[in-house]
Amino acid sequence: MTPEQIQARILFKDQDVIVLDKPAGLAVHAGPNSPDHLELYLGGLSFGWAAPPRLAHRLDRDTAGCLALGRHDKSIKRLGKLFMQGRMEKAYWTVVHGGPAEDAGEISAPILKVTGKGGWRIIIDRAGQEAVTQWRVLGRGDGLTWIECIPKTGRTHQIRVHMKHLGCPVRGDAYYGPDPTPGQMLHLQSHAIGIPPLSVNKEWIRVTAPPPPHMVQALRGCGWSDGAALSA
């Protein structure tokens, strides 16, 4: 991305925080399979400051949406503490195959990371870490359901594994869903984030991201319309 392209993805900016609309398919960190990653482009968000902003948390490569960045050491430290304390508000939108019989509920199912010859994956296991996801149905369509998920814990692949556990895997999920349609992207978005005041004179920051292009058709099929203001 050029500096202009990454700046166009800013959803919120003040002296402490930038909230970015991360595109699906872009990893946030470098890795063996991630030569292209978000941190390469954060210099375009310096706006004259000596150092670029830094990640306050992470999103999976294929998850789009709200990503919080800290602009200096103090804000990074405060944001990290808020995430650790579970005080951040987070709401995800997903489109799943099938759908639950109920319209809302809570999943409390511990998840465990296991590693094998084919790499690692996350499973439901009593020996795993506590994981809790609240959810509610926002719409239903032809074999698909639009669900808002509120993760009360922040485990790797939590929503994807919990949706599978609920019997309705995320559309486009190559790891936990049915055989994916070639070229179909993961239908999971960090739709909204709420950040408590970082200092005495600050107010809550609440930001919502527009649905990513690859999710729009499925969302419309489940009842979403442009301009709909449904978030946590």
UniProtKB/TrEMBL annotation:
Where would one find the signal peptide in this protein?
A: none
* Source organism, top-level taxon: Bacteria
Write down the InterPro entries for this protein, in alphabetical order. Answer: PsdUridine_synth_cat_dom_sf, PsdUridine_synth_RsuA/RluA, RluA_PseudoU_synthase
Q: Which organism is it from?
A: Magnetospirillum sulfuroxidans
Q: Which residues form the Pseudouridine synthase RsuA/RluA-like domain?
A: 16-165
> Can you tell me where the transmembrane regions are?
none
Pfam families for this protein: PseudoU_synth_2 (PF00849)
Which PANTHER family would you find in this protein's record? Answer: MITOCHONDRIAL RNA PSEUDOURIDINE SYNTHASE, RIBOSOMAL LARGE SUBUNIT PSEUDOURIDINE SYNTHASE D
Q: Which family does it belong to?
A: Belongs to the pseudouridine synthase RluA family.
Name of the protein = RluA family pseudouridine synthase
